[in-house]
Amino acid sequence: MLLLAAAFLVAFELLLYMVSPLISPKPLALPGAHVVVTGGSSGIGKCIAIECYKQGAFITLVARNEDKLLQAKKEIEKHSINDKQVVLCISVDVSQDYNQVENVIKQAQEKLGPVDMLVNCAGMSVAGKFEDLEVSTFERLMNLNYLGSVYPSRAVITTMKERRVGRIVFVSSQAGQLGLFGFTAYSSSKFALRGLAEALQMEVKPYNVYVTVAYPPDTDTPGFAEENKTKPLETRLISETTSICKPEQVAKQIVKDAIQGNFNSSVGSDGYMLSSLTCGMAPVTSITEGLQQVVTMGLFRTIALFYLGSFDSIIRRCMMQKARSETADKTA
């Protein structure tokens, strides 16, 4: 009986794999496409720009620091595959003034044509205990990590819908799937991107525009190095339970998922487990993806309990160490 059930499940899976291309979006062709990358002067953003450029895209880099933009432009141009490709640099803060963001997007479209893919990668992280963080930190992270993605997306969405082609990528974080000690400001701003993405996907899917939310793990970038300067001990120890990814690896996965129109983009087995575990009612690209999430969720939930248990243990140990240290200081 078990053998028969297993055979039926395998046959059903094969059928879904055959049918899923009929309902999956048509992949976006990057050769000659116009890709805008915010936060593109360093880290994951710059690597995404390089990956798209390698595939023949025209690139608009958006970031605040003009010197870093020009340096990134030189690095990206080394990967050209034809002499027609262009890298355009625009220095602007995407989180401050929507009208200014809209104007620079218009300038980019006048020079390189309509935006085919927008990658919202501008963002930052500040770690610290809730009561130790200034209220201004919450405001700053929400402005940059959330509104810094809303403004560029709002500036390109009308044209994408009119042309009935487009991809919008929101680069969130694994801390945007799972709230972690020390990330009360950061996690909330990255969680907000998922709500935006799910609602926006419902609106734009009938126009052949697809949204991707990327959940990269800890990645070896300048931003990650800056984040480590303020991390509480508990946060650092939790972070050390997983390996640090290379930005090139993360960029390749994000670009691949965006081209395919996948809603979720994760890296590695831990990322896949977390995405399946926290998928909730998020859109799926194919029936196959939905079935995989349903089948694996129960197993992953069991594994997740061990992960969360290990995190609790880390936090308790840190609290005990601090308590002993405080007691020793008082008796000294």
UniProtKB/TrEMBL annotation:
Catalytic activity: sphinganine + NADP(+) = 3-oxosphinganine + NADPH + H(+)
A GO molecular function held by the record: nucleotide binding
Segment forming the signal sequence: 1-21
Pathway info: Sphingolipid metabolism; Lipid metabolism; sphingolipid metabolism
This protein's GO CC annotations: endoplasmic reticulum membrane
Coiled coil: 62-111
EC number: 1.1.1.102
Any Gene Ontology biological process: 3-keto-sphinganine metabolic process
CDD domains: KDSR-like_SDR_c
InterPro entries registered for this protein in UniProt: KDSR-like, NAD(P)-bd_dom_sf, Sc_DH/Rdtase_CS, SDR_fam
Locations listed in the record: Endoplasmic reticulum
Keywords tagged on the record: Coiled coil, Endoplasmic reticulum, Lipid metabolism, NADP, Nucleotide-binding, Oxidoreductase, Signal, Sphingolipid metabolism
Family label: Belongs to the short-chain dehydrogenases/reductases (SDR) family.
Functional summary from the UniProt entry: Catalyzes the reduction of 3'-oxosphinganine (3-ketodihydrosphingosine/KDS) to sphinganine (dihydrosphingosine/DHS), the second step of de novo sphingolipid biosynthesis.
Name assigned to this protein: 3-ketodihydrosphingosine reductase
Organism: Oryctolagus cuniculus (Rabbit)
